[in-house]
UniProtKB/TrEMBL annotation:
Molecular-function annotations in GO: oxidoreductase activity, acting on the CH-OH group of donors, NAD or NADP as acceptor
InterPro entries (UniProt xref): KR_dom, NAD(P)-bd_dom_sf, SDR_fam
Record organism: Agromyces seonyuensis
High-level lineage: Bacteria, Bacillati, Actinomycetota, Actinomycetes, Micrococcales
Annotated keywords: Oxidoreductase
Family as reported in the entry's similarity comment: Belongs to the short-chain dehydrogenases/reductases (SDR) family.
Pfam families: adh_short_C2
Protein name as catalogued: SDR family oxidoreductase
Length: 268
């Protein structure tokens, strides 16, 4: 499949007509890709992020945008009030907003630690706590985790926050299941966005070397999974964790082993 095929956001879009879906951290990267894909699937998307002005990635798309800092419980309540006043039946939430901080355990500053957990964990909790009461049966919540949630990556605050998000996902899936609300988490691998643009070059190279598909991923390749989970095509899927990572988590370093052995002894 070519790069332009992969970037085509109209591939395999499930039906989401008329569903109101809130997406956080939608100014760019994976959030914007998800918002645009959901929009083209017929959803009424409420795209949110930190900036007051509509972000460049969403300008001219007709997509509804509003400011929402996910760490601000009052802002979540305001959004809920808005949706209720407009009688918009909420059917989905994508907890996508996230930040990284590449400090190791012996260097991490407490303020940075708290900031990462506030956005990546508390932000998602506030979103679920505030918006789930507005959701009818058949609704779906998608949390954006990370492959860092599946093993011990060195940016300790980020890794810890994404592991915590798994706990939140399982707990919310248990609690909200009886109301017909599904909660799942996806674990992207190395996806080309602003977040990874700041990663050391060697990190990208090492990641590719450990990834069976031997490339990084694109934001749309996560968005298609998110759209699927929001749709009725995933109606019996809840509490699930789905990596979208080119096989990185599945291989769990075994690719490195296989490649090293093949290089030293092609017949082994
Ligand atoms: P990004 O940096 O392009 O997008 C993150 C967005 O979150 C930004 O638009 C930012 O303004 C927003 N944001 C940050 N703090 C916020 C707050 N307090 N309230 C509201 N919005 C806030 O990065 P990317 O890659 O699109 O990240 C999306 C999600 O995917 C994040 O949760 C990230 O942790 C996760 N992820 C990314 C991977 C990658 O390789 N790019 C890999 C695994 C997970």
């Amino acid at each position: 499949m070519s790069e332009s095929d992969l970037a085509d956001s109209t591939r395999a879009i499930p039906e989401l007509t008329g569903r109101t879906i809130v997406v956080t951290g939608a100014a760019g990267g994976q959030g914007a890709a998800a918002a645009l894909l959901l929009d083209s699937a017929g959803a009424r998307v409420v795209a949110t992020d930190l900036s007051a002005a509509t972000p460049a990635a969403l300008r001219g798309t007709g997509l509804r945008y509003r400011r929402l800092d996910v760490t601000d419980s009052r802002a979540w309540r305001d959004l809920a009030g808005e949706l209720e006043r407009e009688s918009l039946p909420l059917r989905g939430l994508v907890n996508n907003a996230g930040i990284t901080w590449r400090s190791r355990i012996l260097e991490v500053d407490e303020g940075d630690w708290n900031r990462v957990l506030a956005v990546n964990v508390s932000g998602a909790m506030l979103g679920i706590r505030t918006l789930a009461p507005l959701m009818a049966a058949g609704s779906s919540i998608v949390n954006i985790g990370s492959i860092a949630a599946l093993n011990g990556h060195y940016p300790v605050a980020y890794t810890t926050s994404k592991w915590a998000l798994r706990g939140l996902t399982h707990s919310a899936a248990t609690e909200l299941g009886p109301r017909g609300i599904r909660v799942n988490i996806v674990h992207p691998g190395f996806i080309e966005t602003d977040m990874t643009a700041t990663a050391p070059a060697v990190m990208r190279e090492a990641q590719i070397a450990l990834t069976p598909l031997e490339r990084t991923g694109l934001a749309n390749e996560v968005a298609t999974l998110v759209a699927f989970l929001l749709s009725d095509a995933a109606s019996y899927l809840t509490g699930a964790e789905i990596p979208v990572d080119g096989g990185f988590a599945s291989s769990a370093g075994a690719k490195y082993l296989a490649d090293r052995i093949a290089a030293s002894s092609p017949t082994a």
